[in-house]
Amino acid sequence: MYLVQEKRLKRMVDVLNKRQKDLILFVDDVKNEHNFSAIIRTCDAVGILYLYYYYSLNREIPINEGITMGAHKWVLLEKVNHKVEVLEELKNKGFQIVSTFLSEKSIDFRSVDYTKPTVIVVGNEMSGVSEEIVDISDYQIIIPMYGMVQSLNVSVATGVILYEAQRQRKKAGMYEKPSLSEEEREEILRKWAFEDVIKQKKPEGE
Ligand SMILES: C[S@@+](CC[C@H](N)C(=O)[O-])C[C@H]1O[C@@H](n2cnc3c(N)ncnc32)[C@H](O)[C@@H]1O
């Protein structure tokens, strides 16, 4: 029994059916609240369920709801303290680790097969993806740049790469059947529906 309206519940079910549980985004110490919020919004649009993030400052990472437009409610945000351990664990579970890395030796981001279980790592606005993550990565990718400026804004780069992953997965029919089990979908749906009702019931200003 859910307290949300039937139409809204159906929308949540449709979205959950398209969530790609084996395509994870790992955000390595992105500091700017606008960048992080824009990344969350893109994750929701592409069908990412899990966004892992490492944040080195001793406070909660700020989220700008004017930028996420609510997307932060539909993407599961997991804060990570021991980033290499977490990525090694995912590697042991069969995920390939694909790090963005601005080097001439990096491969074109379109040459990776994103239909495989994949973690895409994007990095800090100044220092990029940390060296220890680059070292354990299976692939180091770059979006080719032909301008005077050497890099893209991190949220833009994330969008470009995630949409290539979406393109490949759509072509492979991966949005046509759920990647989550019935039990997993049921559990997330309960959480989403509950939080949706609670948020709507909160008095203005809270
Ligand atoms: C502003 S860049 C960081 C620049 C930093 N000096 C470096 O060398 O990585 C911030 C993040 O955006 C992403 N990014 C920006 N431009 C990119 C590109 N051309 N290819 C791949 N990722 C890119 C990467 O995730 C990068 O860590």
**CATH top level?**
Alpha Beta
Q: What gross morphology would you assign?
A: globular
User: Could you state the CATH homologous superfamily?
Assistant: SPOUT methyltransferase, trefoil knot domain
Mean pLDDT: 94
Q: Helical percent range?
A: 40-55%
CATH topology: Alpha/beta knot
Total number of helices: 7
SSE pattern: HEHEHEHEEEHEHH
Over all CA atoms, what is the radius of gyration?
17 Å
Number of strands: 7
Strand content: 15-25%
Write structural notes for this entry.
The chain has 206 residues and is an alpha/beta fold. The protein has one domain: 3-Layer(aba) Sandwich (Alpha/beta knot). It is built from seven helices and seven strands; from the N terminus they run H-E-H-E-H-E-H-E-E-E-H-E-H-H. A seven-stranded parallel beta sheet has the order 3-2-1-6-4-7-5. Strand 2 (50-54), helix 3 (65-68) and strand 3 form a beta-alpha-beta unit. Helix 1 crosses helix 7 (182-201). The radius of gyration is 17 Å and the shape is globular. The mean pLDDT is 94. It binds S-adenosylmethionine.
Can you give keywords for this protein?
Alpha/beta knot; 206 residues; binds S-adenosylmethionine; seven-stranded parallel β-sheet; 7 helices; alpha/beta
